[in-house]
Amino acid sequence: MKVRIKKHLKKFLSYTPDSVDYKIRLNANELPFDETANLLSKINDGNLSVQLKKNSINRYPDPSYSNLLSKIAKKHKISTARIVLSNGSDELILNLVMSLTGKTSRVLTFDPTFSMYEILSQVINVKCNKILLDKNFDIPLNTTLKKIKNYDPDIIFIASPNNPTANSFSKDKILKIIEESNGLVVVDEAYADYSQVSFVNYLSKYKNLAIMKTMSKVGFASLRVGYLLAHKDIINVINKVRLPYNLSTLSSIIAQDFFDNQKKYKNDIDKIIKERERIFLKLRSYEKLEVYHSDSNFIFIKFNRSKALYKYLLDRNINIKIFSNSSLKNYFRITIGTPRENNLILSCIKNFIYHK
Ligand code: PMP
Questions:
Q1: Would you give the DSSP letter of residue 154?
Q2: How far is CA 246 from CA 67, 85, 92, 103, 252, in A?
Q3: d(Cα 284, Cα 287) in Å, to the nearest integer?
């Protein structure tokens, strides 16, 4: 049988996640602290066990996910009608481009940024244009506003802090973009816990603003939990296309620990921020690296031997991120790990630069 693939997918290149077979994983911007045993004991006989008893593994999940939803609502001081949950925020991106590209079928984002905005636009055959960031990796406002005027994108994706460049964009520029855009502006706050800025307070002011959050960067990557905060008209549309039961019961229960123990997780995040500043200063002292300021849990670095460094580190069981995109061939990105992991990678990088 000849595979009846859709024409636009014939040459399509999907996202290829990295192998997990490395001892030190500083490639995917996860939180390095492992709470697995503690979390499993809480669903087994701790304060989360009641929910699993009520809704056991042989049953479908509560379709409203009301326990998790109300905790998210409380944290962000927002009504539950303005939240939708997703199986990781990647799923939200797909649902957004699938359902909210109904006027011009155009998506706008920046370059470099998180690749899934473009990849998932391609999956549903919607055009995704990218505007080159300026030399400080900030948004070039005039070019962007012109593009918005001429192109009228249905959705603009803005990751702030941005991945892979690690910086937050100028808040005033983002607000101007929201004001000038007739389509939906999605601010992806995957890394906002590591920065000073969030746009959640602007949701009541702008109907065309939506905020995407993920739990993947704050200790829960394996659960695949993300959520969108937006006007209820937007949430209603996503609910139309979202698969029923898109989150597993286990994920929706375990994720609640983050909202029940905000102080503890804030403490973990603060530890990473402290480490980030320490590592930033160390890396800056190494010749030949151009190290950029970070508002995230990772650092973006320019180095003309990044591919060789990557291989050198893999040989030592350390995985970092390099990029297939040719414009980023002289860059690499490292996630902030535990102090021990950070010390190890610092010494390996130093050794590579000065002795290899
Ligand atoms: N947005 C950004 C900016 C990201 O870097 C990532 C993950 N790398 C995601 C969204 C997706 O996160 P997840 O699907 O794990 O929620």
A1: S
A2: 15, 8, 11, 27, 10
A3: 8
Cα separation, 268 vs 274, whole angstroms? 10
Ligand 1 centroid–CA 88 distance in Å is 7
Domain containing residue 220: 58-259
pLDDT classification of 30: cutoffs 50, 70, 90: very high
Residue predicted with more confidence, 324 or 106:
106
Say whether both 307 and 180 belong to one domain. no
Distances (CA, A) of 48 to 44, 55, 57, 145: 8, 11, 14, 48
**Token pair in block for residue 132:** 């080159």
pLDDT for 93 beyond 80: yes
**pLDDT (tens digit per residue) in 151-200:** 999 999 999 999 999 999 999 999 999 999 999 999 999 999 999 999 99
Residues with CB under 6 A from ligand 1: 29, 88-90, 114, 159, 163, 188, 190, 214, 216, 226
200: which DSSP letter?
A: G
Contacts of 177 (CB under 8 A, 6+ apart): 139, 141, 144, 145, 148, 156, 158, 185
Atom nearest to 93 CA in ligand 1: 10
Residue 227, pLDDT above cutoff 90: yes
What does the pLDDT average to over 256-263?
98
Q: In what order do the strands lie in the sheet with 83-86?
A: 83-86, 226-230, 209-214, 184-188, 155-159, 106-111, 127-132
How many structural domains comprise the chain? 2
User: How many angstroms separate the CA atoms of 345 and 336, rounded?
Assistant: 10
The region that residue 242 occupies, defined by phi over 0 for left and psi between -120 and 50 for alpha, beta otherwise, is: beta
Q: Residue 16 — very low, low, confident or very high, per pLDDT cuts 50/70/90? A: confident
Atom of ligand 1 nearest to the CA of 92: 14
Ligand 1 geometric centre to CA of 356 (Å):
34
Average pLDDT over residues 233-255: 97
235 and 193, same structural domain?
yes
Q: Which of 259, 291, 318 is the last residue of a domain?
A: 259
